[in-house]
Structure to design on (225 residues):
């Protein structure tokens, strides 16, 4: 894959509290709680459904963690010519040995080394809410995404139900403490508004597990104008 320039590593603030174990980034995939496992794996299935529908030749997974989405795309045989994934966790490089069809690199979505208009689709599953400089992230997504390309997101609602389940599953209301800690600067509604103000059109939305007020996540398919 051709690079624009050597941009170096993500800054220390972004990587200060990330776990070394990739599975610890989103432990819900392996949770002993069946509801958590079903919900988080359902996000992957819905995202895959969107990818099948749009049939992109190239896909980038932002905040890929343990490579769950990429692995699922490959396992289901979704046809793509090029798959890439980025994360600020240095441990992500180990996935190049186990998921050979993808190209994993340590990068921040605030500044990547991809050429402009490199991808037909960009996926950000439960990622954008963790980025305080979300407008910079959106500018970079816009740069590397082709005109008419697609953005797939999963966003937490931060509803009363969501916060209650956080207490049940993690033993705390806090975003900064407990398993898989990480501050949410934005909720689903706020992220949706930001994305559409940045030149994207909402094509489809799926609410998990049910509609308001029982929705915990919004899975969205946006198209770049």
């Amino acid at each position: 894959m051709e690079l624009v320039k050597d941009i170096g590593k993500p800054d220390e603030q972004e990587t200060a509290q990330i776990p070394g174990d990739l599975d610890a980034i989103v432990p819900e995939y392996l949770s002993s709680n069946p509801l958590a496992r079903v919900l988080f794996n359902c996000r992957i299935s819905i995202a895959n459904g969107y990818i099948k529908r749009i049939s992109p030749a190239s896909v980038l997974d932002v905040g890929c963690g343990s490579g769950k989405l990429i692995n699922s795309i490959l396992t289901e045989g979704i046809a793509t010519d090029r798959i890439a994934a980025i994360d600020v966790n240095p441990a992500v490089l180990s996935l190049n040995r186990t998921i050979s069809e993808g190209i994993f690199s340590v990068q921040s979505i605030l500044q990547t080394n991809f050429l402009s208009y490199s991808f037909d689709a960009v996926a950000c599953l439960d990622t954008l809410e963790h980025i305080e400089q979300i407008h910079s992230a959106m500018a970079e997504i816009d740069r590397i995404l082709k005109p008419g390309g697609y953005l797939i997101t999963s966003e937490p609602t931060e509803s009363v139900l969501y916060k209650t389940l956080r207490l049940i599953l993690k033993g705390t209301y806090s975003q900064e403490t407990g398993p898989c800690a990480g501050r949410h600067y934005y909720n689903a509604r706020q992220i949706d508004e930001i994305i559409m103000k940045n030149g994207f059109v909402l094509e489809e939305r799926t609410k998990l597990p049910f509609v308001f007020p029982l929705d915990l996540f919004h899975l969205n398919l946006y198209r770049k104008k």
Q: What stands out?
A: The first strand starts at residue 58 and ends at 62. The chain has a mean pLDDT of 85. The CA atoms of residues 4 and 113 lie 5 Å apart.
